[in-house]
Design goal:
Blueprint (H helix, E strand, L loop, with lengths): L18 E5 L5 E4 L3 E2 L7 E2 L8 E6 L2 E9 L5 E6 L10 E4 L3 E5 L11
Length: 115
Amino acid sequence: MSFCSFFGGEVFQNHFEPGVYVCAKCGYELFSSCSKYAHSSPWPAFTETIHADSVAKRPEHNRPEALKVSCGKCGNGLGHEFLNDGPKPGQSRFIFSSSLKFVPKGKETSASQGH
């Protein structure tokens, strides 16, 4: 079952440099590159957020295995969390596309740190 259309050009699918993925709209820290892993989907996949409030989740109608995910600070729509579909048993998989921006390690700003 597909949840998103793939148009190609997803810039972070095979991107594994050290750094932080932030909300493209407000710059709030969402995911560390340490929680990113290679996955067969065309979108970047993560196992956990940086902060407990990095994202907000709500049930996806008619899809009990998925949650809609938005930025915990500004509400920008980010993608989905697929329950129990992570790299290890019991882990979830977060997937996102153009709603993320990457900040290389050492280039963090107060905006990317949510201050």
